[in-house]
Amino acid sequence: MAAAPSTSFFSISSSSLIFRRTPFLCPTSFSASSLPQFKKGVSGLGHVLVQVNCVSERSKQSAEPEPEVAPSPSSSDSPSSSSVVGADEDVGVSAYKWIAALGGIGFLETAYLTYLKLTNSDAFCPTGGGSCTTILTSDYSSVFGVPLPLFGMLAYGLVASLGLQLSTEKKKTFDTGKSDGEIFLVGITTSMAVASAYFLYILNTEFAGEMCLYCLASATLSFSLFFITLKRFGLQELQKILGLQLFVASLVVIALTASYNIAGSGSSSSMMETEIPYFETEITKESSPMAIALAKHLHSIGAKLYGAFWCSHCLDQKEFFGREAAKILDYVECFPDGVTKGTKMAQACLDAKLEGFPTWEINGQVLSGEKQLSELATLSGFKLGDKAETK
C-alpha cells in the first residue's frame, strides 16, 4: 500500500533559526483524534512548534497533469462494435419489414387476379374500358397452362414470409456472410423482377395502346422488392451472388419463352388435327340502345371484328353487344367452311396477320382480345351523344 501524505513539524529557536524536520506518516483519513497532540507555547527547550502541512511524493504525482492517452477502440467513451452491429441489425429489420409489407400487398393483388382467372370474371379496371380484362384473358396470362397470377401469388406469399422471418433472424451462414434465407430471397426477387420486365416488353409490343394497372402495379412491387433486397448486400457480396442472379434470370426468360412458343405451336397443331364442322352460335342477350348505336358507328367507320365460330371469347364479345347489335357489326369469320386437316384461315384473316381471336381492326389499329363497349367507344371516337343521331 502506498504511503499516505505526511506532515512535518519544524522547531524554530528564539535565539536562532534552527529548522528540524520530524517526519511521520499521515493516516489516509484524518480526524481530530488521529492528529498528535501538542501543547501550544514554548517548550522547555525554548522551541516553538509550528505545524506545517507537507505533500507526499504520491500527492505530487497526482497533482501533476497526466499525459493524455488515446482512447482504445474498446473504451466505453467510443462506440463499441456491438452498438454498430446493433444499428445495422435495426436497419436490416426495418428493410425486411418493408419487404414483408410489399409482399403482402402483392399477394392480395395476385390472389384477386387468380380468382378472376379461375372464375372467368371481368377485372375491375380503374381507368375504365376493358384493357385489363383483355390482357388478363390473353394467351400470355398462363404459363404452361397454369394461370400467371397464381405464380405471382405464390411468389409474393413466399417473399412476405421470408421478410417476416428475416426480421428476427440472427444466424449468418454462406460465404457471403448472409443467411440462407437472404440468399433465397435474392433469387426469388430476381426472378420476379426479370419476369416483370419480360411482361412489360410484351405489354408494349403485343398490346400497344392498352393499359393494365394491375400489371404495372405488380411490376412496381417486384422491382421495389428487388432493389430493397439488393440494398442489404455490399458490393463484394453482390459480386459473389451475381452468378446466381444471372442463372435465375436466364432460367426465367427461357421458361417463359418456351411456354409461349409451346402454347402457340400447340394450338396451331391441334387445330390442324381436329375436324370441326362449321356451326352458328346463338346470341341470347338483348341489345341496349347504346350498344346498337355503337355498332352502327363501328360499321360506319369500317371497323372489323375477326373471329372463329369455335372461339368462346368471340361469342362473349358478341354477347357484349347483344343479338341485334351483333348483326350490325362487320364480322369476319376466319373459318367459314369449318376446320379440317390442312384448312387455312380465310384470306382476309391471313392478310390481317391475326395472332388470336377475337381481333378488332379499328382506324388502322389491330387490337387482340375482348373489348368492353366503353373501350370500343373510346378507340373509335364514339360519343354517347352520337346515339341520338342514329335510330
From TrEMBL:
<dbReference type="GO" id="GO:0016491">
    <property type="term" value="F:oxidoreductase activity"/>
</dbReference>
<feature type="domain" description="Vitamin K epoxide reductase">
    <location>
        <begin position="92"/>
        <end position="233"/>
    </location>
</feature>
<keyword id="KW-1015">Disulfide bond</keyword>
<feature type="transmembrane region" description="Helical">
    <location>
        <begin position="207"/>
        <end position="230"/>
    </location>
</feature>
<feature type="transmembrane region" description="Helical">
    <location>
        <begin position="242"/>
        <end position="263"/>
    </location>
</feature>
<keyword id="KW-0812">Transmembrane</keyword>
<dbReference type="InterPro" id="IPR044698">
    <property type="entry name" value="VKOR/LTO1"/>
</dbReference>
<keyword id="KW-0874">Quinone</keyword>
<protein>
    <submittedName>
        <fullName>Dehydrogenase</fullName>
    </submittedName>
</protein>
<feature type="transmembrane region" description="Helical">
    <location>
        <begin position="183"/>
        <end position="201"/>
    </location>
</feature>
<feature type="region of interest" description="Disordered">
    <location>
        <begin position="59"/>
        <end position="85"/>
    </location>
</feature>
<keyword id="KW-0560">Oxidoreductase</keyword>
<dbReference type="GO" id="GO:0048038">
    <property type="term" value="F:quinone binding"/>
</dbReference>
<feature type="transmembrane region" description="Helical">
    <location>
        <begin position="140"/>
        <end position="162"/>
    </location>
</feature>
<dbReference type="InterPro" id="IPR012932">
    <property type="entry name" value="VKOR"/>
</dbReference>
<comment type="similarity">
    <text>Belongs to the VKOR family.</text>
</comment>
<dbReference type="InterPro" id="IPR038354">
    <property type="entry name" value="VKOR_sf"/>
</dbReference>
<keyword id="KW-0472">Membrane</keyword>
<keyword id="KW-0676">Redox-active center</keyword>
<feature type="compositionally biased region" description="Low complexity">
    <location>
        <begin position="69"/>
        <end position="85"/>
    </location>
</feature>
<dbReference type="GO" id="GO:0016020">
    <property type="term" value="C:membrane"/>
</dbReference>
<keyword id="KW-1133">Transmembrane helix</keyword>
<dbReference type="InterPro" id="IPR036249">
    <property type="entry name" value="Thioredoxin-like_sf"/>
</dbReference>
<dbReference type="Pfam" id="PF07884">
    <property type="entry name" value="VKOR"/>
</dbReference>
